[in-house]
Every structure is written in C-alpha cells, then in structure tokens.
Amino acid sequence: MNIRLITPAPSHSRKGNRVTALRWSRLLRELGHRVVVEQVYGRSRPDVMVALHARRSHASMRRFRDRYPSRPLILALTGTDLYGDIHTDAEARESLELAHLYVVLQPAGIDELPERLRGKARVIYQSVTPPRGAVTPLRNAFEIAVIGHMRPVKDPFRTADASRKLPPESRIAITHVGGGLSPDMEERALAETASNRRYRWLGELPRWRAMRVLARSRCLSLTSVSEGGANVVSEALACGTPVVSSRISGSTGLLGDDYAGYFPVGDTEALADMLRRVETDEAFVAGLREQCARRRGIVAPARERESWAQLLAEVAP
Which residues of 17-44 are buried (b: 16+ CB within 10 A; e: fewer)? Predict the structure, then answer.
C-alpha cells in the first residue's frame, strides 16, 4: 500500500514524534509498503493515512477525509492528545471522529478516550534496539539519567531538586540529556549545572549517544506529569536500565501497576528517598531489574512490526 505518515515535527527534529514517525516508516517499508513522511498532507493519493497528534494534524486529516472518505485514516494519539487536547480542543475531538482507528502506545491510554470510541483503539508498543557493544557504568559516581527535552509537562528539574536533598555521603550524579525548548529552560539548566554539584546538563545529543548514556546509567528518573507512553521508558527496558517514575498512566501502562519504582507526581522528597534506595538497597534494585526484564519483550522490534501488520490487515480493502 501507499502510506502517508503525517507528523507535525520537522525533518531535523529529534523530538519523540519525529523519532516515532521515522521508526514506523522503516517498519512499514520492511512490511513491503511505500511510505512518505510529511509534516502536512498535500495533494498525493495515498491508500492509507497515518497521522500523529490529533490537534496538530487535524487539517491534514480533514483534507484527506474530504478527498477520500472511504480510505483508511489511522490516528496515533500522543500524550498531549490523551491527557490534554481531546478533552479541551474542538479540532482534536473532531480528529477522533475522522479516524477509523487509533494507535495508543500503552493500554492505559485507552481509558482517556470517550467510552463509545474505545473500541477503535489498538495498542502498539514502541520498540527499541539497544546500543551495540559493552557499555559500563561510570566508576567515579552513581549515575542517574534524566533524558528528554525540557518542557513543563516533563517537570524536568524535579530530579535535580531531589538530588539536593541527598545526604553528603551519596555518590549520586544526575546526567540530564535533552534540548532546552525555551530560553528560560536553558538558563535554568545552566544555572543548575553551575550551582548543583550533583547535576550536569549535556544538552541535546544524537540519539545513539543519549542511548549510551542511558545504557551506562544505574537508573532512569522519569518525572513527567503526563506521558502517552514515554519512548525513554521503552529505551530503558531495552537497555536493561531500571526506572524510577512518577506514578502516571503513561508509565503504569508500560511497567505495570505493581511496579515498585513509582513515586507521587511532583513529590521531591519521595523521589529523593527513591533515589537513595536505588543507590543503597541492592535487593530493591534487583527487584526493579527483574520487573523490567519481564516487560522487555514488549519493546522488541519484531513485536511492533507484527502489530502494524495486523493493524493494516484490519483496514486494508
């Protein structure tokens, strides 16, 4: 089939939506389809459209539906969609009506949809190939990774704040990878690096380098207020890096409700206690590793490719 994959993220972007779109385009080509990734739908005549982001891809979805009312239109719902726009924005809500099927990145996301539309949702977990070769932890510190572009929804400095509450003997060091999407965020990261001996901001890195930071780290700290299904959690599972995360549905849908590494959203003290436990309690960390290992199969590339094969078989003429 001829597939147009619409993502609002520009071609040079390293944001999650672009990473997801490029991975999906590769998987779909492996399945034998012709795929073009675009920011905006133009005048092409695809057999199927896959659109990321209900609000920002709304115009493309509307144009495609008007031209080809019966051709399959698949909407991939982001965290911004599920935990924001579809509850407040008229265009995002119309996008739900335009789509034949939805893709969500973890099963808890389905609960955010209107009940009458949940039957249109299909779960496709994001897959990850871990870095090649041996990756060893830093010897001079107990490294905790924070990976993601700095936006308010990510609560990006919560881990840095928690590190200030650690006891003097702690060897924890926070390595933060991700672009500052506003001057204020960049200034805060630079100021934090200068004033907090436990925190270092590396800025935006190529994905392969960010993956190696994650793979060598003793733990990933995810502090988001909401996530559709954070790609970095999938990356941590693939790398075998345990995770501590705010208790949000975007993480429980990937790690399970009973995962032991959750802390309340925005609770700096609880995060500091969790990090200290990761550093000092070997049995606790072994338990986190075991729980993550049991979930590792969901991020296998073969599984994601098969999920797409099943979805397209469902909508194909």
Answer: bbbbbebbbebbeeeebebebbbebeee
DSSP H or E run through 36: strand 34-38
| Segments making up each domain of the chain, as ranges | 2-125+300-315, 142-299
Residues 6 or more apart whose CB falls under 8 angstroms from that of 90 comprise none
Check pLDDT > 70 for residue 15.
no
Please state whether the predicted TM-score (pTM) of the whole model is above 0.85: yes
What CATH number does domain 2-125+300-315 carry, 3.40.50.2300, 3.30.70.260, 3.30.110.30, 3.40.50.2000? 3.40.50.2000
Closest of 79, 122, 83, 115 to residue 99, by C-alpha: 122
* Mean residue pLDDT across the chain: 94
Calculate mean pLDDT across residues 282-297.
97
Secondary structure (3-state) at 84: helix
Top-tier CATH class for 142-299: alpha beta
pLDDT tens sequence across 190-238: 999 999 999 999 999 998 999 999 999 999 999 999 988 888 999 999 9
**C-alpha angle 292-294-296 in degrees, rounded to nearest 5:** 70
